[in-house]
Amino acid sequence: MPAINASSPAAQYGTITIGGDLTVNRMGFGAMRITGKGIWGPPDDVAGALATLRRAVELGVNFIDTADSYGPNVSEELIARALWPYPSGLVITSKAGWVRFGPGVWQHNAAPGHIQEALEGSLKRLRLERIDVYQLHVPDPATSFDASVEALARLREQGKIRHIGLSNVTLEHIKRARKIVPIVCVQNRYSFSDREWDFVLDDCEANGIAFLPWGPMAQGRKANEAVEKIAAARNVSTAVVSLAWLLRRSPVTLLIPGTSNVRHLEENVSAAAFRLTDAEFAELAAVVPKPYWLRA
């Protein structure tokens, strides 16, 4: 595939450098939704999923987030099928820590042996010799967190991982992991209306760690009212306003909204060119959403 255009739509909000040597556009793509219902099996429209991946790259997306558990394996296989040989500058990040036994069913496994096995499978499916960013998908209550991170560190020493990230973690997890190996990104649930991990994002910003918010769209009545007001006034979708808020929230946010629909993808990417005014940002900041666990 041709190299990604530096002036493309996904590049309009600028770039972020991960680990000191990987510079990507701050509008990325999450590849969980290109699988079947319940994140299980292939999608109903395989051709549409492949077209979405190819269109993402055409729009300048050069950071794609996936995991071996998405499908399982399906997301990684579709990425390779759609995009290999990969364009220059494309960063694909994958994850390990969940195992799957059915639609909507997720079970922890971050044992060192499983992490190594999962990585080997991801390398094969993605047709890569090294994964640029590999993340612990979730801490495993049955496995020492330090042991999971040490397993990732060993794979990095072997040259199979370039950089290491964490997902679904607390600030304590991040601090413990950084004593073992450099951490370049953290992926936690976060949106305009779900700011439980505000302090983790602030810590990432203070330490130059990229923050990848999953579940990035505003939810909840009060939050939606505020977002809808701006969206209507500016003639854009609420998705665009929600994503634009995340981009402005911190210079270390790297967005990975997911979809299997080309139209939705184009709408999401258009948020990179959208700017909230100071007044709009202040209006949204004045809305204090309920904590995630208290929402109706």
UniProtKB/TrEMBL annotation:
Q: Which residues does the UniProt record annotate as the domain NADP-dependent oxidoreductase?
A: 26-287
This enzyme's EC code(s): 1.-.-.-
Top-rank lineage group of the source organism: Bacteria
- Coiled-coil positions are none
Keyword annotations for this protein, in alphabetical order, are: Oxidoreductase
Question: What would be an example GO MF term here?
Answer: oxidoreductase activity
KW Transmembrane helix (keyword) present: no
Q: Could you say which enzyme class this protein belongs to?
A: oxidoreductase
Q: What is this protein called?
A: Putative oxidoreductase YdbC
Q: Which gene specifies this protein's sequence?
A: ydbC
